[in-house]
Amino acid sequence: MARTIKAPRNPVRNTSRVTTRDDLHDDESSDDDSDYGNGIKTRASTAKKAKKQSSAKTSSGIGSGKQTPSLVRLLAMPLDVLLEVFSHLTPKDIIHVSRTNRFLRDILMTRNSISVWRAARERIGGPECPSNMNEPQWAALLFGNVCQTCGARNITKFDFFLLRRACQQCKTENLLTKSTIKAHFPRRDIEDIFQLIPSTNVGPNHRASRFCFFWFPDVESMLQKLKEYQRNIRFHHPGAQRALDDFKAQRAGMVTSTRKLARKSEIWYQEYALLCYADKQTLGNERFESIQLKFIKLGYKSSDVESIRWEPECRLRAPLTEKMWKRIRPILEPIVFECQQERLQRAKVERYSSRTSYSRV
């Protein structure tokens, strides 16, 4: 009896046909389409997942920008408490605080805060404020570092007689002698102006001179004021001549008091600068001792650590913290390790030479 063979449910495709170049092209295009579709699906799922994570962070308060900084807590304090806190700062610190934001600037630049500036100045023994300046201006002159003319920074030198801090370029442009001013303003009463504005004997090169130097904008401002008084006299305004005489007497007295105060202020500032330098040296030594102690605990000798005394990381005028130690240790330890190896090598050579010399004897 003949045996019947049933066809399979999944018939095998006939693969005897030769694959052509068109077939390969079709296969590649189908693969590309499938990959592109998978890519879209992957990016969409990734974006959806990131959106969920961001929404979760926002709901939990992380990364939402609603965290309250410590400065806001400080500003929420009562005004009298704030002023009391600021009065215990140094004048230089108060200047920095006043430049933090507009709110603090408005607080420290009012008449109610004059006592804060005065208390900070008196605590360090600073000289009295001149009559033609207020306390913030006086503090900025003593402890600031900005040129009052062009705004250049890191200006360390200033003139007590001119009551001005200026850079080298501004001094060269604005410091003029009497002869130069007379040549620029050929007026008969120009000689009277020199008694009404401050002068100095320190020229643009920061050296004392036998000439008197005047600040050119002060000359122009004084000429403008005298011109207004003389105009009132010319138009026969009542009391115009007396007002001019009072103004000249007031200005002459101000110039005289400024000169007296300048001499005292220079002496005080020199002593204060030496004291600040000594404090910085003390802070630097304490920082190096802290670094030295850290390396000794790691097994090094104090002689090994002496090699890094003048490294920039050891000369900073700031206390050593654990965070700072983790940052500077990889920089300093190779130097200390090299000195340790040199010391051990020298000791090894000395021991070897001593043994050989003893054996020869």
UniProtKB/TrEMBL annotation:
Disordered: annotated span: 1-67
Biased composition (Acidic residues): 25-35
Pfam families: F-box
InterPro entries on file: F-box-like_dom_sf, F-box_dom
CDD domains: F-box_SF
Domain F-box: 71-120
SMART domains: FBOX
Protein name: F-box domain-containing protein
Lineage, highest ranks first: Eukaryota, Fungi, Dikarya, Basidiomycota, Agaricomycotina
